[in-house]
User: What shape does this take?
Amino acid sequence: MANNMIGKIICINASIHKVLLENNTIIDTKTRGKLRNNGIEPTVGDNVEVDIDNKTIEKVLPRKNHLNRPLISNVDKLLIVMSTSIPTFSSYLIDKFLLIAKVNNIEPIIVITKTDMISRSEKFKIKRYISYYRKLGIKVYNNTSVSKIKKEFVNSVVALAGQTGSGKSSLLNRIDASLHLKTGEVSESLGRGKHTTRLVELLEVNGGLIADTPGFSSLEIDIDNKKIKTYYPDFKKECKYRSCSHVKEDGCSIIKLVNNGKIPKWRYDNYIKFLSETNK
Ligand SMILES: Nc1nc2c(ncn2[C@@H]2O[C@H](COP(=O)(O)OP(=O)(O)O)[C@@H](O)[C@H]2O)c(=O)[nH]1
Ligand SMILES: [Mg+2]
Ligand SMILES: [Zn+2]
Assistant: This one.
């Protein structure tokens, strides 16, 4: 009789799939030519059924979500790490990550970094963005709040998003000093080749699993143009026109909210940009 156990793929290197089993041991497995649920290619983050004796993956369990870039499944939380100094703060990038999180049923959490490098007036400006995001129900932490951020890892699969140099690896090192992740690396587009595929790996951190991957830096929105508005909690108020994409003035209640300051102009402008960037 087969000796099967459930586990999670934490790393794939060529044909070797490292699986963290329920009993907390790690086993190197291979996929069988034909998995029981046909056509599904196991990826990092997948929950799988493993034949312990043969060291083969027998089955990929149903996914909560699946991202292509980075290639990973079952992400619970997306830590959006945003610098306020170098690289410069970008609400556009935050909104893009928020959209991607929402589409994939991932809880977004914003972590602000490098506030030690900016002036009082710059801090004040950033605070206005932060308070709007909080109003939308999104958690926002400063990277100095290590213990609060640490708690977010417990029992969760967490992916990190943010520009190179925003402080992702530094944050992780502060959360778990034993990680020894390299920090302060030069921009990938300068250093390494753009097309180099990087290994996605889940690391055990504070009772959870974390993917420190730069894959999110090249973001594409793969969403139906007309659906984007449905992912905006701030656009929930019904517009006179059901099919309105809130782009043209005439009687659109969302545009009214923008004009009277209830929805910030920057938030709306980012939305308009996304509409023009989708290719669907
Ligand atoms: N002043 C300051 N520097 C930081 C902060 N966070 C990260 N850094 C520095 O920013 C550089 C890039 O950080 P790193 O963690 O490698 O960014 P990553 O590319 O997102 O992983 C490093 O030199 C860090 O020491 C911060 O909160 N304040
Ligand atoms: Mg890094
Ligand atoms: Zn409208």
